[in-house]
Structure formats: structure tokens, C-alpha cells
Amino acid sequence: MGTIRAALSLALLLGWMTGGPAAAADDPVVAVVEGEQVRRSELEAVQAQLPEQYRQLPLALIYEPLLARVIDRRLLAREAERRKLDARPEVQEALARARREILGDHLLEVTIGEALTPERLQQAYAVARAQPGFAVEEVRARHILLKTEAEAKEVIAALAGGADFAELAKKRSIDPSAQQNDGDLGFFRRDTMVEPFAEAAFALEPGQTTREPVQTRFGWHVIRVEERRSAAPTFEEKEPELKEQVARETINALVAELRAKAKVQRFAIDGSPKPN
The pTM is what? Predict the structure, then answer.
């Protein structure tokens, strides 16, 4: 299996390990088809193959159509066996391909599961933390939100005349939280704010205020930066990314090892020998 297939399998395998089918102890029978049990895990496996918008839904919301689909597939398979279609060469080859796919996917699942230890993830976090650029810049800023550009310009003029920012925020801002925090937004990162606001805030140095009003979908802002700092993301913030990284490294290492040990011949698309 190539690197492309490994990459395509990664998200699905991680989903199975973190929130996939239930364990055997919590895997009730949801139907019996001609004497054969259907367990909830089979429905969860089918859901895991659906488009993302359906994978994100609680199973209960699509339980009935999924159950009907699984039952229908069981009935179709039984009828195919009754007609002895499984003896056909093309069906045998398709079954062999499916077996190889399933075995390969489960090998990846097991291998990734063994690699995703707390120690390995902490080690990956330590390596990432030591890299330049790991820390993220943050600013602590205040803002005064107003309905119109003209009102925002009035506030800017008042600030230039010596007015206190916190007092103006409490009196003029239409942001309800300004009554409690004097317009103080605390520390935030660029990607947590809408772009016009973030661009203006991160262009300021501590003690500076925007000279022109900043428009967003919320209204018109006057922004003052109080502090700037670089803060490293916590392990918890980086954990999903670290899991993907370790899983990808594990898959690549496994595939590279198997390729190195295997004897593989490649041919041209028409089956002829490839020129050296």
C-alpha cells in the first residue's frame, strides 16, 4: 500500500480509535436476519464510510436508515450465496481484494494504536516545542464597539484629547461585556478574531490605539493594545495534531520497512517490462 492510500486511511483510522465502534461489552444486537445477529458496531462501521456530514451526526439520528441498509445488504448477500455467485471467478477476485484491504486497514489500526502512547505523544510535543516558531504571538487588547463610523471617530478624537479608554468603553461601547470588563478582551491569538480586527490589533504596539475605526460585521471598533507576548500552545491544544503526526510517521515507517524487505516487480501500464 502506497503513501497516498496510507494518508487517505489516516483520518478514518484515528476516528475509529478515538470515537469509533463500541467495544464488545457495549455492542448490542440490533437485528436478527435469518438467524444471523446484526450488532450496533456494524452500523457504526457503515456510518464511518459515509460522507463527513453524516459521520458527524449522532448515530441515533440516522439509526433507522442505516439499520435498513445493513439488513438489506445481509439479505442481498444471502441471496447471492444461494445462487452460488460467490463461486464465480470475478467474485472470488473481488473478495480477495476486499480481504487484502481489510487486513491492511486493520494492520494500520493496530500499529497506530500501539504507537499512540502518552510517552510518544509527549516526546513529539517536546520536539515540536523546541522548533523555532512554535510559540504563538498573542496580544491583550481593549476595544470600544460602536454602531457607526462617525461615532467611532468621535471616540478616537476623545482619546486623542486625553479621555480614559476604559471609561469610554464602559460609557460608549455597545458590546454588553464592556460594562464588566471596560472593553478588555484579554490575551488572544490572531486566528481567534475576525480578520479586520486581528489585522489591526496585531499591527499595534503596547499603548497604541487605532487611528482609524476598524469595521467588522459586528460594527465599528476602536482598538487599544495593552500587552504583547509569545505563548507556546499547550499539550492539550496540540494533541489532535500530534496524534495525526505520530500516526503519519508510523504509517510511513511501516510502509518503508515493508517495501525494503519485499521483492516487487513493476511493469508498464500495458503490462510490458519497464525500460531501465
Answer: 0.63
